[in-house]
Amino acid sequence: MRVGVDPTGLVGRDRELAELTEFVGRASTDGAAVLLTGEPGVGKTALLDATADLALAKDMRVIRGSGVEHETDISFAGLHELVVSLSREINGLPDAMREVLKVALGLGIGHTPDRIAVLNAALLLFIEAAKEQPLLVIVDDLHVFDDASRSTLSFVARRLAGRRIGLLGAWRTETDDLFQSLGLAELKIAPLNDTDALNLLSRSFVHLPPRILRTVAGEAQGNPLALLEFAGATSASGARDLRGSGWTSGQGRDVRALYALRVARLPQRTRDLLLLAALEGSGDLGLLAAAGGPSTLDRLAPAERDHLLKVTEDGRTVRFRHPLVRSAVVDAATGEQRRSAHHRLADALIGQPERRGDHLSRATTVPDEGVALVVETAAQSSLQRGDAAGAVARLRRAAQLSPDPGNRTRRLSRAAYLAAWVAGHLDTSHEIMREMHGDPAPSPTTAAAAAFLVLVTEGDADTAHALLMKLIEEALVPSDPPRGELETALFTLTLASHYSGRDEHWQPLIEILRQLPDDSPAAAVSVARIHYAPGAVTDDMLRRLDHEILRLKDQTDADVVIRTALAASYLDRLPGCREAVSRIVGDDDAMGASMPGMMFVALDDLYRGRWQSSADAAAELIVLCEETGYRLFGQVGRYVAAMVDAQRGDLDACRAHCQDIWSWSGPRGLRRLENCAHQAAARAAIGAADFDTAFRHATAICPPGSLPPFNPEALWSATDLVESALRTGHSAEARRHADALRASGVARLSPRWALSVATATAMTSEPDDIVQRFEEALALPGIEHWPFEVGRARLAYGEELRRRGRTRDARTQLKAACDQFGRVGARPWEARAKAELRATGMTRVSRGKAGTSLTPQEMEIARLAATGLSNPQIASQLFLSPRTVSSHLYRLFPKLGITSRGALRDALEALPPEPPTTR
Prior knowledge:
47 helices, mainly alpha, disordered N terminus
C-alpha cells in the first residue's frame, strides 16, 4: 500500500520555501528570476508545484512548461508549450510582433524572423500577460529545452526588473553548467538530511516499521523521490516489489524502474495514450484526441488515479507528475510501439510541417523518398523561421531516408553548406562532409560546401577554385542564369577568386561570366561583375541595387542580405544596408553569416568616420573568428583595425596588424588580403608624412597609371598613391594615376568616389587650374557624410594655397581641415594641418570662441567627459538625455578652443581658477 505525502507542506524544505516565498513576493511587484538546481528526484518539481500554489494564493497568473528530450532539436518548441495558453495576448500584440512570434512558433507563414525580434516579441507577450495580474512562468527540466527557447528565457530573465513577472526554472545538475549563462540566480536543492528523510517516511508510510524506514533512508541517501518510491514498493516485511526491474541503488538513484513498474500495471490503451503524450510533448489534449481517438480522458483516468499524471482544470492539457514518468513511459515502450505513436502524431499534425516531419521521420526505419521529401520541406520551413541549425538537422535526417544516392548527397551537401555559411557550425559541416566520403560524383553543392570550408578555415583559395571550376563549366548552360546548386557553387567560386585576387583564378571566372545574362544584384554573376570593375556597372544595375537595398528592411534571408551588402560595399552603398546587416549580426542562429555582417558594419563605421565603433566591431570579429575557426574572415577584421590605427596615428598597432595579415595571407597566395595590408600601411605612412614608405606600399598594390580589374584596393588607395608620388618627385606617375582614376568611371557611383577623383585631379592639375579644381571638389553635393575625405581635400587645398602665398585663404582651409580631423580623431592628419597653419605665420592655432565662460552645467559635463565617461554614462549621472549631453559638448568645445574630447582635460586645467563665491 502506498500512502501519499501531506499535500499542504514539504518536509525539510523550510529554507527553500522561505526563499521561494520571498521570490514570489519580489516577482509579483518588481520581477525576479530563480533557477532550482539539483540531482534527479531531489524535489525540484515538488518545489515548483509549491511555488505555483504560493503564486496563486497571491493572485498571480501561472503558466507552466517542461523540457522534452524528443523536441530538443525543434527550435522554440519549449516556448510554444509555454505560450499556448496566451492566445488572447498573442492576438493582442502589435501586428509586426504578432507575425514574428507566430512565424517563429510555426503558427504562421512568413519571412525568417530576426532572432532579436523574436526575443523582443516574447518579452512583450509576457509583459502583456502580466498587465491584469502578475505572471509567474515555471519551466521544469530546463536543461532539455531547445536552445532557441532557452535563449529566449535567458533574454527575458535579464529584463524583468519592474515587470511584475517571475521566471522559475528547474535544471538537473548532472547535465552541464550551461545554466550559468542563463542569467538566473541559482537556488541549489540538496538531498534531505537523515532526520528529515526519516520524518518524510514516517509521515508518509506509517504502516512500515522503523527498521524498514531506516533501511530505505540509507539506500535513498536523502533523495525525496527515491525515499517515496522505495518505501512505496516495500512491504512491512521488508520485501521490495520490483519484479525484476533491475534497480540498484547508487549515486544516480534512478527511480524510473519503479515508475515503469507502475506504468506496466496500467491497461494497454492507457499505456498507448501515455506514450503519445510523452512523445508529443506539449500535453495538448486536442492533439492527443486526434492522434489517439475518442474517449481520451476516460482512457487517461487509470494513470491519473495512480498519480502518474494530472489534467489541468480547464481540461485542455495533460501533464506528467514528474519528468521521470515521461522517461519511464518512453523507455518501457518497444521500438515498434514508439514508431506507431510517432506515425499517429504525424497524421494529426498535417498543418505543422516541422513537427509532422519530425514525427514522421522517427516513425520511418527504411529509406522512403516520400518521407524524405516531407522532412526536407520541414527543413525549408525551419530555414524560413531563422532556425538554420534545425534546418541542418532535418536535412541530415532527410538524407538518411533518401533511397536515391544522388538525393542523399544533395541533401547532405545542402546541410553542410548551411552549417558553415549560415549557422556557423564548422564542426557539423566537417562531420557531414565526412559522411559523404566515398559517395558518387559530387554535386555542385557538395563542391561548394567543401570549397567554402577550405577557404574560410585554411584560406586555401587554390583548392577551393580547383574543386569548383571544372564542375561549374560542365554544368553551365550558356544564356541561362544559374539557379539552385549551380548558383551556390558560382557564388563560392566568386568568393574564392575575390580573396585570391590572382589572374589565374579570375580569368577563368570571367570566361564563365561572359556566357551568362544579367541577374539580380545579389546573384553571383552580379557580385562578380561589380567586383571586376565597379566603375563599369551600368546605371540600370545601380538602380536595381538601390531598389534591392530599400527592400532589405523586409528581407530575412541572411544569404540575400549578405550578398546584397557585398555588392553595395564596392559601390559606397553600405549605409542603406546597415539595419538589415545589423539584424544578421545579432542573430545567434546565423553565426556564419554574422561574421561577414560584422565586416560590413565595421567598414561602414570606418568610411563614415565612426572609428571607435569600427575598431570595436573589428575586435569583436577577430575574437569571434578565432573562437569559431573562420580564420579568413578574421584577417578582414585585422585589415579594418589596421585602417583605424593608420588614420588615428597608432603606427605600432597598424604595423602589427599588417604583419599578421602578410604572414598569414602571403604563403596562401591571398593577394587581395596582402593588398589590404599595403593600403593600411600606405595610409599610416602618409599621415606620418613618410611619403617614400607610402609610395612603396601604394605601388605594391598596383603600378602608377594602372587600375587593374579585381583589385578594389587599387581604387581605394588611388589618392594615397597620387599624393605620395607627388611628394617623392614622381609627378608624371601621379598624373597618370589621376588620369586612370578619372577614366575608371567611379566618380558617378557616390559622393565619396566623386570627391576622391576630384581631389586626385586637383592635386595633379596644371598650376592655373588647381584652385578651381579644389573649389569644384569641395562644392560636390553629399560629401559631408565622409569627414575624413573632406578633411584630406581641405588639407591638400590649404597646403597649395599656402605655397602660393594666399595666407588668409590657406588658413581658412587648414583650420577647417584641422577641425574635421579633430572630430574624427585623425591625430597625425590634425598635426599636419596644425603644422601648415603655423607655417602661415599663426603662432597659435585658432581656438574659435576660446575664453568664453562655460555655464555650470557645461562645466559639469566637460569634467565628466574629461574622465572618459561616454555620453550615455554622463546622461545617467546628471539625469539628462544623451542627446542633451551631446548638444552641450558641441557648444562647449569652441568655448574651450578644442575640437575633440581628447583635449578636454588639458583645456580644463588651463582655465583660470574660479573666483571665490560671494556670500
